[in-house]
Specification:
The complex is a heterodimer of chains A (225) and B (93). Chain A has 225 residues and is α/β, with parallel strands linked by helices. Chain A contains seven helices and seven strands. Chain A has one domain: NAD(P)-binding Rossmann-like Domain (Rossmann fold, 3-Layer(aba) Sandwich), CATH 3.40.50. Chain B is mainly alpha-helical. Chain B has one domain: ACP-like (Non-ribosomal Peptide Synthetase Peptidyl Carrier Protein, Chain A, Orthogonal Bundle), CATH 1.10.1200.10. The longest helix of chain B is centred in the middle third of the chain and has 18 residues. Chain B starts with a helix and ends with a helix. Classes of the chains: A alpha/beta (225), B mainly alpha (93).
């Protein structure tokens, strides 16, 4: 079974649907799980005890975990000086702390099998240092730093940890970002085109598969920087 | 279960995960400079204790806030780990 956080929408939803189409068993985690056409549990990943509850349910159900995709995240496009402290807290708590919680709590389920792949989500805003995304980028830079070190901690258990760092992709996260702003970001990529959720799904499938057994502790910047 | 039985479970678990290469004593250090288990083996020990707790009928939680915040003492020696294992077994009754 593969756990995908942020499964109700955006890239998490796209990845969930792709993996289901590929015949994999998936458990989606999201704040609200009503009405979703796949197995999902309500879980606020920023709450350590809530994530732990999911792990306990999996243990009791004797579910064998093979992968974890930490796609849950929020964005706020603002200058740092105009970002309220509550939003700063929320960004760090969800994007960084939530990802750490899921890695800490679900990794032991992978360690039991001495196999598995973890994918954390960063953003191309980290290497590009995008204006208006300083706090969002800070939260994701934390995810990258955590993932590199966590990959080394998990290597002894044959568990790989990598980051995917997309540029602008048409999802809810881009609401409020103008086409001009998107074009300006895309033009800074090595491959200056706007990629689709399907491109991210392709890379997720690759990183979850044995085809990527030589990769761990890496950040794949989609579009290139 | 009493403390001697709990220590015995911890010692047995250490022998299992090290394939008998380590002969655990009650005062054996589990963390720090004198530790005889590396961090990987310490995680394996926790998972083994989780399984043994499940077989006995309680959940051994080594990831809780309270366990983590007391981690220095929890993992200091075989005895301190056995004391925590016993305490959680009694809470789980």
């Amino acid at each position: 079974m593969i756990i995908i956080t942020g499964a109700s929408r955006g890239l998490g939803r796209a990845v969930t649907e792709r993996l289901l189409e590929s015949g994999l068993e998936v458990l989606g985690l999201c704040r609200k799980n009503e009405g979703l056409p796949f197995e999902a549990m309500a879980c606020d990943i920023s709450n350590y005890e809530a994530v732990k509850f999911v792990a306990q349910e999996l243990k009791q159900g004797k579910k064998q975990l093979t992968g974890l995709v930490n796609a849950a995240g929020i964005a706020s496009m603002n200058l740092a000086v105009t970002t309220p402290p509550s939003m700063t807290q929320k960004l760090i708590q969800t994007n960084l702390v939530g990802t750490i919680h899921c890695c800490q709590i679900f990794a032991p389920l992978l360690i039991r099998k001495k196999a598995g792949s973890i994918i954390n989500f960063s953003t191309i805003a980290v290497p590009l240092g995008l204006k208006g995304e300083s706090i969002y980028a800070a939260s994701k830079a934390g995810v990258e730093g955590f993932s590199r070190a966590f990959a080394r901690e998990m290597a002894d258990f044959n568990i790989r940890v990598n980051c995917l760092a997309p540029g602008p992709i048409k999802t809810d996260l881009l609401k409020g970002v103008s086409d001009e702003q998107i074009d300006a970001i895309v033009s800074q990529q090595v491959v200056p085109k706007m990629f689709q959720p399907g491109d991210v799904c392709d890379l997720c499938e690759f990183l979850l598969s044995q085809k990527s057994s030589s990769l761990s502790g890496q950040v794949l910047n989609i579009g290139g920087v | 279960m009493n403390i001697e039985q709990s220590k015995s479970i911890v010692r047995e678990s250490i022998s299992e995960i090290t394939n008998g290469e380590v002969e655990p004593t009650d005062e054996m250090n589990l963390i720090g400079k004198e530790a005889e288990l590396d961090s990987m083996k310490l995680v394996e020990l926790c998972l083994t204790l989780e399984d043994k707790a499940g077989a006995i009928g309680f959940e051994f939680d080594w990831t809780s806030e309270s366990a983590m915040s007391r981690s220095r003492s929890l993992f200091r020696t075989v005895t301190s780990l056995a004391e925590e294992f016993l305490a959680q077994s009694e809470m789980g009754k």
